Amino acid sequence: MKKRFRLVLSLLVLCLLFSLTGCGKSESNTTNKTLLVGTNAEFPPFEYINNDGVEDGFDIALIKAIGNEMGYDVTIKNMEFKSLIASITTGGLDASIAGMTITEDRKQSVDFSDAYYTATQYIIVPINSKITSLSDLNGKDIAVQEGTTGDFLATPADDNEVITDSTTNVKRFKKGTDAVLELKNGGVDAVVIDANPAQEFVKANKESLKYIVEDTSTEEYAIAVKQGNTALLADLNEGLARVKANGTFDQLVGTYINGTSTTDATTSTNPFVKFVDKLDRVFVQTNGYMRLLNGLGITISISLLAVLLGVALGFVLALMKLSEIVTGKKTIFSRIANIYIDIIRGTPSMVQLLIMYMVVFHNRFGFIAAVLTFGINSSAYVAEIIRAGILAVDNGQMEGGRSLGFSYGETMRYIVMPQAIKNILPALGNEFITLIKETAIVGYIAIQDLTKASDFIISRTYEAFYPLIAIAIIYYILIKILTKLLNLFERRLRKGDIH
Ligand code: ARG
Asked: Signal sequence span per UniProt (predicted)?
């Protein structure tokens, strides 16, 4: 037992170290020539995640070209749009490039480079909608991306706005694609968003959506830096001027903005062709199947490492609790174990995950935060499983061992534990299965697990049905296989009982 336990422990440490190095590529912005640039890759054609899973788009290419010109190593950090400015002011980012419009409000918090693109707001509506202008949106349900100029336009804030009707209902989404999906599913009447993304979104959904060119005032996109960082601002402006002068800028406009998109939807009306085309779009074109496979790998790794950690911690906790039985009264150990188990079981794992990731790890090392959270969470349940498993062994076994001249520890080790393990192992298997399903929330801390993979596919293809059913099936199969294996294993254990 001791040997096996040691093996499990060292395996766990090894795995943790492994993932630490894997996730440890942290972006530091202390060395001279690095530039950490935030974006929100939910805004095609300016920024999006490409089929290889990396940030791409006009803005990304532009900032890299500027960096190249001025001798900066550019690292891109993808985050929520509304967190960009705050991250710049706190120094978490050197700059942001995110199709961000220069506004008076934002200028209070950050400094902007020279403008590099002029945009307007468009309205996306269902193809047969009666809405033809901004003023038609009064009293309607509108979806927007949270904290964007489209949001400000749609929100009846002051009297200068076109939309002043207080019954207008604005639904704010973290991603433009989610807003579009809401529209597609009939949850709102319109989406207000910048012109180029609007065109991209409609292009990908041309059988059901159209856009309305609104004569709103124009907006200018620029790169944002921390207020007073004049040196960086000067470099960025100089770099921008250079890439404009040497033709790179126009080339990027050609590739990213005036080029053709690959996410065109089918126009066929044959239901079978449509079905196959959808499958192709969801699972092949966007590399969806790779996402799902990778996600599955991550889901399994997190669950497996967490259950190992849970068993190690749970074993210690169980012993701490059992000290109560050995001594016949509450001990300091059993008290600590009880409080620990009480707290862990009394709070939602989602909350534990967020605390671990945001408070303990400061939004870094998501994978480790997830393993630790679920390991700690699971240990509380495992402790009870192990404790109950040991207690279930008949008292006579202990007495028998002792009367044979074994010490307490020896009896535990050679007589009680081997029997307890037969009670414990099947229950641990169930714990593993429960964990697999529970880890579906790690997407909240930006881990690309199986559930999150479906999220990605949905936002690329605007199809919710196929990816969601697909992950449900994958979870189901995984758990079926595990259950079968466990049953087999349990039967073999029981076989040992028949002499
Ligand atoms: N231009 C708009 C704004 O500044 C929308 C930008 C959204 N960008 C993004 N990467 N999601 O508010």
From this structure: 1-24
